[in-house]
Amino acid sequence: MEIYEKEGLFARAKSLAPYFLEAVWSLRDHPRVKDLRGYGLLAGIEIDPQGAAAGVAGTKLQKSLFRNGLHAKITGDTAILSPQFIVEKGQIDEMIDIFRKTLDSGS
């Protein structure tokens, strides 16, 4: 806890949260996005399973995201994004760009 406080990481995370959530919400227009939820630097992006059994589309998405350079925790068909408190705006932009391009590719 000392390091977090000394480095101002809690304040940094708090100041970046609106930017992060707005970036995540930019995915709301994508036809494969079923639901978005988030708080602070934590977001869930649920994708449409497209008729597949629960978790099948999520597993495929996780593999494709990883191949494209983004690691995301997947629960069922929901990707969980939670960047480190040292994240920068450019890295948030890159995360969302990779996510969108991966969805666009049908993965």
Global shape = elongated
Percentage of β-strand residues:
15-25%
Rg over alpha carbons = 14 Å
What's the structural domain tally? 1
Helix amount: 40-55%
CATH class identity: Alpha Beta
What's the CATH topology label?
A: Aspartate Aminotransferase, domain 1
Secondary structure class reads alpha+beta
Question: Topology as H/E string?
Answer: HHEEHEEH
Largest sheet: 4 strands, antiparallel
CATH fourth-tier homologous superfamily: Aspartate Aminotransferase, domain 1
| Contiguous runs where pLDDT drops below 50 for at least 5 residues | none
Average pLDDT, all residues: 95
How far is it from the N-terminal to the C-terminal residue, by CA? 39 Å
Structure summary, number of beta strands = 4
Give a description of the structure:
Helix 2 runs parallel beside helix 4. The chain has helices spanning 2-6, 9-25, 56-67, 89-104, and strands at residues 33-39, 42-47, 73-75, 78-81. A four-stranded antiparallel beta sheet has the order 1-2-4-3, with helices on one face. The chain is elongated. The protein is of the alpha+beta class and 107 residues long. The chain has a single domain (2-104), classed as Alpha-Beta Complex (Aspartate Aminotransferase, domain 1), CATH 3.90.1150. Strand 3 and strand 4 (78-81) form a beta hairpin.
